[in-house]
Design goal:
The protein is an alpha/beta fold. The protein has a single domain, classed as 3-Layer(aba) Sandwich (D-Maltodextrin-Binding Protein, domain 2). The protein is built from 13 helices and eleven strands. The strands form two sheets. Strands 7-6-8-5-9-11 form a six-stranded mixed β-sheet, covered by helices on one side. It has a five-stranded mixed β-sheet with strand order 2-1-3-10-4. It binds 3-(1H-indol-3-yl)-2-oxopropanoic acid. The site of 3-(1H-indol-3-yl)-2-oxopropanoic acid has 13 residues, from α2.
Length: 346
């Protein structure tokens, strides 16, 4: 009797063991070969044909190639999983492994980045992206402490685009103009009524007349067909918008070190690639908009340029002084900003 019982329990144990080991076979460590890749879901708030989403496609291609497909990247642009409102929190909470959003959309959360977003004389998106990428490495934002920063880049300096012609400050007073939220003081200084919203909401707001114009980079005239509601631009460079792509920290820590190395190598490369893509795309969009939609870029008179300079000039210094008085290294950051702009503009 007793012997039968022992045999039975031995049999049950062996059966369990075989279940467990076969289970292990299916769960073989991901990332060791292309048949069992590490899957990274990567989300963004705006449509797939916009430049930040094109950056994601390029990153996916490079990471998959350079890891021999041991990593598989799944892209979710268009706000399908996370929007600009919950992107970074969603990544932190593990809704997706990676997310791309704009620090400029979140006033107060990234105080030092707010300095480099204000008008600083960037010649184009390539220089702005290189500068912002370096600043983020040198001054890692506290709000990203629990994230791995994957890459960062920026727009070209943004321009005012409207459905009515603007050639003076006077003509802008009280107009409802969309801008991204951290840089609304730019429009307040110019005398307009700023309305902040995500780029994802811009097309409809223009169509329904909620706003009469926008401040942003000019590739969206073509990519989002905004030229259908915007006939004029003012040829005066304003603030930039900064983007940072992040990965969940636990996911990052779990990656094999050679895969981490591939991703780290791509950080600055992607900043440069995106800046260059963006600049060529802006040129193409402007040509297309002028030729197909009679879009007009208005040059300000010298007197007007001086008037615009005068109202905008104090903005950055005042903001820096405020942050400095709160104990942040704002002056050092600002100094480094101009050093990097001049270094990368050569
Ligand atoms: C942007 C955001 C999403 C898709 C395309 C885009 N082009 C420029 C931006 C930055 C932005 O939101 C802004 O306020 O200029």
């Amino acid at each position: 009797m007793k012997r039968k019982k022992v045999l039975l329990s031995l049999f049950v144990t062996l059966l369990l063991l075989s279940f467990i080991t076969s289970g292990c076979g299916d769960n073989q460590q991901a990332g060791t070969d292309a048949d069992n890749p590490i899957v990274l879901k990567y989300a963004f708030f705006a449509p797939a044909n916009t430049f930040p989403a094109q950056q994601m496609e390029k990153w996916k291609e490079e990471v998959e190639n350079r890891t021999n497909n041991r990593v598989k990247v799944e892209l979710f642009p268009g706000g399908t999983i996370l929007t600009d409102k919950n992107m970074y929190d969603g990544v932190k909470n593990g809704v997706v492994e990676m997310g791309l959003s704009s620090t400029t959309y979140e006033p107060g959360r990234f105080p030092l980045l707010g300095i480099s977003d204000l008008p600083s004389g960037y010649p184009n998106a390539t220089v702005a992206s290189k500068v912002v990428y370096d600043l983020i490495q040198e001054y890692p934002p506290e709000a990203f402490q629990d994230f791995k920063i994957i890459t960062a880049f920026a727009t070209e300096p943004n321009y005012l685009m409207t459905n009515f012609p603007v050639s003076t400050l006077q003509g802008l007073q009280g107009k409802r103009i969309r801008i991204s939220s951290s840089v609304t003081p730019v429009l307040t200084q110019l005398g307009a009524s700023p309305i902040s919203m995500s780029m994802a909401e811009v097309p409809q707001s223009l169509q329904t007349g909620i706003v009469e114009g926008i401040v942003t980079s000019r590739e969206v005239l073509k990519d989002l067909k905004l030229v259908e509601n915007l006939s004029y631009g003012v040829d005066y460079p304003l603030s930039i918008v900064t983007f940072v792509a992040v990965m969940n920290k636990n996911v990052w820590d779990s990656l094999p070190s050679d895969i981490q190395q591939v991703i780290d190598e791509l950080g600055q490369e992607m900043a440069i690639w995106t800046g260059e893509y963006k600049d060529s795309h802006v040129a193409e969009s402007l040509d297309w908009s002028k030729n197909n939609h009679a879009f007009e870029l208005i040059r300000l008179s010298q007197d007007e340029i001086e008037a615009w300079n005068q109202v905008l000039q104090p903005l950055q210094d005042e903001y820096v002084a405020d942050l400095q008085s709160k104990g942040l290294p704002a002056e050092a950051y600002q100094e480094r900003l101009y050093e990097l702009i001049s270094q990368y503009s050569q």
